[in-house]
Amino acid sequence: MSLTIAQLAKRLGADPDKIGSSSSGVLSKEITGVGPIKTTGENEITFISGDKHKAALAGSRAGAVIVPERLEGLDKPQLVVKNVNAALIEVLNIFAPKLKAVTPGIDPTARLAQNVKIAEGVSVGTYAVIDDGVEIGQNSVIGRGCKIGENSKIGKNCRLDDNVVIYHNCRLGNNVVIQTNSTVGSTGFGYSFIEGAHRLIPHNGGVIIEDFVEIGANCCVDRAKFDNTIIGTGTKIDNLVQIAHNVVIGKCCLIAAQSAIAGSCKLGNGVVVGGQVGMRDNIEIGDGTMIAGQSGITQDVAAGQTLFGCPALEKKEEFRIISARRRLPNMAKQIKQLIKRVERLEASEDDKE
Question: Which of 19, 134, 234, 263 is in the most buried spot, having the most CB atoms within 10 Å?
């Protein structure tokens, strides 16, 4: 796949008057790929979204660069766009590896039970198993080795990658993506200690995953004890994330890898959760909250806060604690010196007596 710089500029909505470069025939130069500043080749395009990497561009071999505004003194074709990230997504899609297209149809090795409703354009991969009462919407893709339990419903344009498991009585909206080896609807971790043994509490609820949710690889979303575990529209979940029973996650949240959200937590809209964050059960996180990686959330959080630490605190308070902690070695030395000084003074007073 290759496009000229002129063609790329048109696709990205770049300002043609700002492309520039002292080289002749710059608009007809062929671009065949995209890459980072340091390793991009002469026929590839790179990008810069802020001042941090401007200096590196001088030594880059890139054939062109996507920028938010024209950079003076840079002798490279510049595609000036309103939103660098949006342009980068478009370029990555243009130059993505061309894999074999998914074709609609049910592979002969797949196993479909009774009363299964498969809409037009659906693809069901090899050795997939679909149980009684399942419904799958138009143009959805069910990968190899997937398992969909009884009475679950999959919306339109969904994609379940290989070996995804959807348990019984779960509902996925439209345009949902679930990557390889993730599980939706497993029994929650709830036990009662009765007569000397831990007894599993039945989890009879379901899971609702709303439209445009994306879930990474090797994630677990537990079913509810009652009602439903819910993941709101537009939320994106990284790999290796645990969502426990009866959790409710709002719209357009971001949850990074290795985070764990305990039972019955409620996250508002637009919450951002860094990697390896842990939340205790039954807490509420307000809209727009940002939680730094490796934080531990132990109590309710009001909307719009930025937290980090374990237990997590509002960032200004945590900064003060960190600052004080860094001074502890010097403070310990000063305390020892003061103790010695007091001891000398006391000894001097004793000699006078």
Answer: 134
